[in-house]
Structures are given as C-alpha cells and as structure tokens.
Q: What sequence folds into this?
C-alpha cells in the first residue's frame, strides 16, 4: 500500500457472492472493509468478486449498498487453476511481445506459488522492457482507489478473525 500498490476488496472469506444472501454479502464486504481500515487506514472502492462470480443482483447490490466499483479481469495467467511457474512466465512473455499496447487487466495470485515465482523470475521486468505500462486499476479508469483514507489503528483485543461481525 505505502509503495503505491492499490488495495481492493476480495471479500472476507472468498465466498461466491452469487450463493449468498444480502446479509451474508454485507458481512463479507463489511468485515474486510473494517479490517483494512484498522490495519491500513483505507476503505477500498474496488472489489474483485471471488471466482468472478456475479449476477445482476450482486452487481446492483455491491454498487448501491456498498458503493463498490466492480473489477473483472480480461486475461488469466492460470496460476490459480493448476498452472505452473513456467506457464505464468510464458503467459506474460507472450503478452509482452504479442500485445504490448493491448489494454488488459491480467489475473495472477499472490497466494499461488506459480504466480509468485513468475513475478520473482522477471515477469514485471519483461513487461516493462516491452513497453507495457503497468498501472493500478484506479489509474486505468481515472478513479480514486479509496472511499476512505485515514490512519492505521492500534491493535487491540477486538482484532480477531473469528466469526463475529
């Protein structure tokens, strides 16, 4: 965050939003918003729904009730679905050389060994060397990334990951 990375919501427990009630969606969004406000001092405007699962109701509800801007990806590195490090490297190398001017939002996962190792092995350098301009989502669509920006909070006993909202 402090290095300029954009923080967005991805829900509290990575639940498929299309399978939840409105009250459950509220809990997923609000719990993560509260945690990010406490830990980083920000409340994100953007959300990427887990699995990309959306329907008209979820889209409308996230926009109206939670004031979220919904973001989806255009291209998937495949790292979360069994892809290898080399597969991710090949994906970004191909992207850099075949479509350097193509506006895209690629999907990679920081919790995937393949995705992390691909980044460590130079995919960012490959993209920038090919002239690909790397931007945050907020920069791409000229929006402020956060609904709220404040200060970090001091940790206390209320900071838990249990099921209390």
A:
């Amino acid at each position: 965050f402090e290095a300029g990375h954009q923080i967005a919501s991805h829900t509290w427990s990575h639940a498929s939003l299309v399978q939840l009630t409105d009250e459950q969606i509220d809990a997923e969004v609000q719990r993560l918003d509260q945690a990010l406000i406490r830990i980083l001092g920000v409340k994100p405007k953007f959300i990427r729904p887990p699995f990309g699962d959306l329907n008209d109701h979820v889209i409308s509800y996230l926009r109206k009730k939670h004031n979220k801007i919904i973001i989806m990806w255009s291209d998937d590195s495949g790292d979360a679905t069994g892809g290898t490090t080399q597969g991710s490297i090949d994906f970004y190398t191909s992207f850099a050389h075949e479509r350097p001017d193509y506006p895209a939002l690629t999907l990679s996962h920081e919790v995937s060994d393949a995705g992390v190792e691909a980044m460590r092995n130079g995919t960012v350098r490959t993209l920038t060397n090919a002239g690909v301009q790397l931007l945050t989502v907020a920069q791409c669509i000229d929006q402020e990334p956060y609904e709220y920006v404040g200060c970090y909070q001091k940790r206390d006993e209320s900071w838990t990951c249990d099921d209390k909202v």
